[in-house]
Backbone:
């Protein structure tokens, strides 16, 4: 693999879900190759994805066009923690306490709440055609047995398969999640999220992310999926749900309109430079 010119990046994370942030005005000829190379934790900078952000500060509130390219080179329509990172990045540049994030899943309003950043996530959807599920499904998947787990399927900007278990720490995520992630029920694949109820009423979370193809320290859309699935399956009735992935604590709230809001911390780790042009390596026959 050969590399050439350099492009600046900033490294952020939201509860351990980490991203390289690149100003979209910077020229990166092959974003997929860039993400695959530099997200690699062994040979690259290491991250769960690259956020290419275009700031449009002529608007009030300012707007950010967000494109998330994942380590496998695919593009994700939405990422809760990524959108919160994008909001923090824009707030730092504009001084605004509110920003609008344009994602492939729609435009989301973000705001600063104390030391945290909150983002509106839209309404979780369970309809088979929205998740999406395979054509044979004409009813929502609410606790169907897939690979030995009772799975609830929904879309929180991206597809999620949620399984409630007694103890998330007892789950071998890297072993059991891939067959669910690629199950025939999910024609576009799905993120696989495991959740266990705590005595305080919150949930512990672990998520295997589609596109990362591994477990991440946090997943914002997964936290929303847990809270929404728990409400639909009568595990909780609360309008505010605390969810704890390995990387920290998130809060999911449900205003009266049914849309979810995700709130949690964002941290700026460091800045650096990386090769903008990365030659693709074709697989050997």
Residues:
């Amino acid at each position: 693999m050969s590399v050439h010119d350099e492009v600046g990046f900033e490294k952020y994370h939201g509860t351990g879900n980490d991203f390289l942030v690149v100003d979209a005005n910077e020229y990166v000829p092959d974003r997929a190759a860039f993400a695959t190379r530099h997200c690699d934790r062994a040979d690259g900078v290491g991250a769960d994805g690259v956020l290419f952000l275009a700031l449009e500060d002529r608007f009030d509130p300012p707007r950010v066009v967000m494109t998330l390219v994942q380590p496998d080179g695919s593009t994700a329509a939405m990422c809760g923690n990524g959108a919160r990172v994008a909001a923090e990045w824009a707030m730092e540049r504009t001084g605004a306490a509110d920003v609008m994030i344009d994602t492939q899943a729609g435009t989301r309003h973000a705001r600063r709440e104390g030391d945290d950043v909150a983002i509106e996530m839209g309404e979780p959807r369970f309809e088979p055609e929205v998740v999406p599920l395979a054509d044979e499904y004409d009813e929502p998947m609410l606790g169907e047995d897939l690979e030995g787990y009772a799975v609830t399927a929904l879309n929180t900007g991206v597809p999620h398969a949620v399984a409630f278990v007694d103890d998330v720490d007892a789950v071998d995520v890297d072993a059991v999640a891939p067959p669910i992630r690629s199950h025939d029920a999910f024609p576009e694949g799905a993120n696989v999220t495991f959740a266990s109820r705590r005595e305080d009423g919150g949930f512990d979370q672990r998520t295997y992310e589609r596109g990362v193809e591994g477990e991440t320290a946090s997943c914002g859309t997964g936290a929303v999926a847990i809270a929404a699935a728990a409400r639909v399956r009568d595990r909780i009735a609360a309008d505010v749900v605390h969810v704890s992935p390995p990387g920290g604590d998130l809060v999911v709230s449900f205003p009266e309109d049914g849309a979810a809001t995700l709130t949690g911390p964002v941290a700026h780790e460091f800045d650096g430079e990386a090769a903008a042009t990365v030659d693709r390596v074709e697989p050997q026959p």
